Amino acid sequence: MPAAKEASAPIHSVPRRPLVRLLIPSLGDFFFLTVLVILFVVSTGGWQQLLADGDTGWHIRNGDWILRNHRVPQSDLFSYSKPGAPWFAWEWLADVVFAWAHARQGLKGVVIVSGLLICSSVLILFRYMLWRGAGIAWALLLSVLVADASQIHYLARPHLFTLVLLPICLWLLDRDRQRPSAAVWILVPIAALWANLHGGFLVLFVSLALWIAGAFLRGRVAAVRRPLVLTGACLLATLVNPYGYRLHVHIAQYLRSDWIAGHVNEFLPPEIRSEGMYKFEALLFVGIGLVGYLVHARKYEDGFLVAFWAHESLQSARHVPIYMMAAAPVIGTELAAFVERSTRGRPRASLPGVVRELVREFSVEARRSSIWLPVLAAILWWMPAGPRWPSDFPDKFPAAIVNRNLATLAPARGPSPRLVSSDEWGGYLIYRLYPATPVFMDGRSDFYGPEIGNDYVCLMRACGKWSATLEKWRFDWALLPRDWALVELLKSRPDWRVVDQDKTAILLQQTPQRN
Q: How many CB atoms lie within 10 A of CB 472?
């Protein structure tokens, strides 16, 4: 009996007193810190890689406008191609968060908020997998794979809130399917919050629909009532936004737009050309391979979830992180179950038995929380700004030329220049030049639509109508990437002259011709 008691003792122990437990870092804390260091401290891009998308610029300025005016805009603020046209600022609450951080800590504040959201999403996913029984080894491995494959979308933009809320919602739904409780109704206020942060709130309704389908296929008609009522309540909650039901209509039109699907990069199929995307490909094959087994085992919700997002991730690169976060818990659970079946009956003193007990013990420890993550966030926030923190957007943006020509590009008096530039740079130019100078086009593809979008594509590719398009919009300045074909065409015209240039961009001005 003494020997049996000794064998069943925990491998290590943490004091049971709540206050002491809060003061002792957990394995989850170390995992969060490790992800943060790998992604943003020792990586080549550092914190500045979060600013690789110019849309961050207009999100900050829109949030500034909201904080200053205490209302959400209903019409365009930033362009001269569609001035005052109706505009859905459907990510307004995320914009306010970024603007608040920027007002207090500049771009450092924006990247800290974004980095903490990313690391939190990975930690929540990790702990969700532990709760499902994946075990610490599979949970660690899959969480790292998800983080690596999702790096192409780790940008300071509102979709980061979706990456945080998605595993929370999947966790709540899983928990309620196993043991129904009132906790699942937390999804109602989450849906209302999500609808004001990012259009990814539709992911919640996909998950609810798959829950309903699974319950129906099991022949449990009575069990369908609960998710149906929950879905209706969540749908009503999403109407609590500045645009009401019109937001849902706008998003539906946006997702059905053939022009956006064919021209916006994140809506195009993913390109498997990087190490992270190879990891996505590996989990894609594993997930698809499990679908048949899951359906046969009557685990319909898991099977449908993996199959649906696998299909969507092949259609659009923007769905790659969603597939990874939805599929990883399912894959981890099944792999852990397979290992458990393989080692069942092995003595605890054997190598498989020792590994099994270690996994169980450390899995419990990794689910514990402490005060050190909020402390880490506070340290990062109040840390003095230095060379490690971004003071401007990365070198892919025309920061140097804008700095040298700021008085010309954003005049204090007189008419604003009618500047044509890359849509990718449009958000950055809004960040630097607003409100003095509006832009022709930026990353708000749902706002500009095919008419202006086709004119922009014509200029970018120097189509046969490029000269007529220039005259149509009466551009008098052009700030263009050096590799655009339009650059050489403008340089060859006598009514355009080069004002400034560097390895990234070239600034040209139209000059009046003498008779």
A: 10
